[in-house]
Structures are given as structure tokens and as C-alpha cells.
Amino acid sequence: MAFRITKKFEFSASHRLAGLAPEHQCARMHGHNYVIELELGADDADLLPVGFVRDYGELSAFKVWLDSHLDHRHLNDVMDENPTAENMAAWVYKTWSMKFPELTCVRISETPKTWAEYRPSGQ
């Protein structure tokens, strides 16, 4: 892809991770101020006539979904998988790639120093 755009979104939620030792801090319920980045890409020939990969304003639908489905929720109640940052990135990608076919990557941050990324093969 010759062009890539990214937009950042934020939300707060709690979770607990199954499969960890009871003394592991992530085995207990805790919360994060999450950051999600959606990356969209296009080649020269696929840019919109105005020169956009996609109008950033169109990503407001994602913000509405994020606020109503994830913000201030317990992620174990929302996701069918263990709500790790890695699983969440893949889940968001699979949920939104039909709406935004230009979506190439979803990145999730739980803390300012940690990121997980889901990028399908070939992206």
C-alpha cells in the first residue's frame, strides 16, 4: 500500500484474563485507559477522487460503536474470547473490516508503554 492513514480512539474498560496463575496481576479484575488505532491503506489507483484513502469523518461510526459497546464495560462480558489486547485487536479488525475494506491494521494499547497489533497476512 502506497498510502496509510491512522486515527486514534480512546476508551476505558475493565477485564480479567483467564488462564493465568491466581497471583498474576492480570488474573484479577482491573481496568485500563485503552487507546485503539485504526490504520487504513490504499494504493495510488484506489484513492478516492479527492485524494483520500477514506474521509476521516466516516470513522465516526467506529467511535459511536466503541462508546456504546466497549467504553466503561467489562470486556469479559462483551467478547467471547479472553480479552487480551491481542485478541481485542483481532476482534476489532474482524468486526470492522467489512465496513472499512481499507482497514489494514488495528493497534491496541493498555498502557502508554505497551501495544498489541493485528495485521492480517499480506497487509
Task: Give an overview of the whole structure.
With 123 residues, the protein is α+β, with helices and mostly antiparallel strands. Helix content is 21%, strand content 34%. It has a five-stranded mixed sheet with strand order 3-1-2-4-5. β4 (103-111) and β5 form a beta hairpin. The model has no long low-confidence stretch (mean pLDDT 95).
Summarize the helices and strands and which ones pair or pack.
Elements: E1 3-15, E2 30-42, H1 60-69, E3 73-74, H2 75-78, H3 85-96, E4 103-111, E5 114-118
Task: Provide a compact summary of the structure.
The protein is about 20% helix and about 35% strand.
List keywords for this structure.
123 residues, alpha+beta, 5 strands, 21% helix, 34% strand
